Amino acid sequence: MFAVLLLDPDMVVREANPAAEDLLHRSARRLVGERLLDVIGLDDERVAHRLGDADARLTVRGMVMRCGERAMQVNVTVSPLATHPGWRVMTFSEVGQGELGDEGRDETTLRAPSILAHEIKNPLAAIRGAGQLVARKLDEKDRPLAAMISAEVDRIARLVDRMQRLGSERADPVEPTNLHEAIRSAIATVRAAGGGGVELVEEFDPSLPPVLASRDALEQVLINLVTNARDACAGGEEPRVVIRTRFVSGLVSNLKLGRAIRLPIEVTVSDNGPGVDPSLRDHVFEPFVTSKSSGQGLGLALVRKLVRDMDGRIGHQRDERAGLTHFRIHLPLAREEGEPA
Ligand SMILES: Nc1ncnc2c1ncn2[C@@H]1O[C@H](COP(=O)(O)OP(=O)(O)O)[C@@H](O)[C@H]1O
Ligand SMILES: [Mg+2]
């Protein structure tokens, strides 16, 4: 049960549901008319600051909220009311003990996309069939467009399959994969979806050996990262996304079956946008975390799951001086040195 507060443009509580009364230990009568920040205290200055922006849509997970003497950890959403400028609906749910573990949290929150996935597959089959029919009527020069419909529908269908398995332990099988081919197709897909005037630049180390990965998963990871990077810088001056690959020796490793495996293949997607919103910085890889009005907040959750399935690592950094945001993946080699060919 979600606690819900209706806030007016002055951030005064106008309505509170019973769950909000329970959570805040106050009757609705004693909540209504109070200023929100007199009722609850937010330790996170940046969230408090974001709340000052009446148009901001906000999702924060695991935020510490004080209420009188009590401190609790809550998931919070804030949504503007389209019909009433300045008014907002705020929901809270306390983070339960069972939910605190990182893995457990994924399980519960990912059931919704699994249901959605089910609903997507039938229309996809119809789109694919219609695409094939249309292709027959097209001129030779327009056929590649129809081929793209089929290819993309197939990719989405596979993605949907994966979403259904997001909560499960199963991983796509990995095999020696050409990293640069995967990156190029990902870039082509993002371009076809409308680049938004953003320059997409490849900086590849052509001598890189094959990576141990699932081709589909890798492509999906890159599409998601490049799309986010494009979204992030699209509004700015000379928007630019750079996809860089390089070999990094030593250091980065992962443990599997008690054995360290090295992750020397590095892919970095960098953009010159403003960077990840500070209130989201530690949460971007969690499902349903988004700062976009039409975002689903599933892109990076899927990226994290797919990268982990490939025994890889993902992280993000901000280089304030250079004005760049980096999302960086590390992956294993197809073959460790010393292993037979
Ligand atoms: N390159 C980036 N620069 C700034 N913010 C980013 C970047 N990539 C991701 N984010 C933030 O992470 C959020 C979650 O991303 P994602 O999981 O792909 O969901 P969505 O793109 O649907 O919002 C985005 O809404 C955005 O706030
Ligand atoms: Mg995204």
UniProtKB/TrEMBL annotation:
The UniProt record lists the Histidine kinase domain at 115-335
Q: What is its EC number?
A: 2.7.13.3
| Keyword ATP-binding tagged | yes
InterPro entries hit by this protein: HATPase_C_sf (IPR036890), HATPase_dom (IPR003594), His_kinase_dom (IPR005467), HisK_dim/P_dom (IPR003661), HisK_dim/P_sf (IPR036097), PAS (IPR000014), PAS-like_dom_sf (IPR035965), PAS_4 (IPR013656)
The UniProt entry, under Pfam families, shows: HATPase_c, HisKA, PAS_4
**What reaction does this catalyse?**
ATP + protein L-histidine = ADP + protein N-phospho-L-histidine
Q: PROSITE patterns of this UniProt entry? A: HIS_KIN (PS50109)
What keywords tag this UniProt record? ATP-binding, Kinase, Nucleotide-binding, Phosphoprotein, Transferase, Two-component regulatory system
Q: Does the keyword ATP-binding apply?
A: yes
Q: Supply the enzyme class, top level.
A: transferase
Q: Which SUPFAM superfamilies does its entry note?
A: ATPase domain of HSP90 chaperone/DNA topoisomerase II/histidine kinase, Homodimeric domain of signal transducing histidine kinase, PYP-like sensor domain (PAS domain)
Q: What is this protein called?
A: histidine kinase
Question: What organism does the record attribute this protein to?
Answer: Pelagerythrobacter marinus
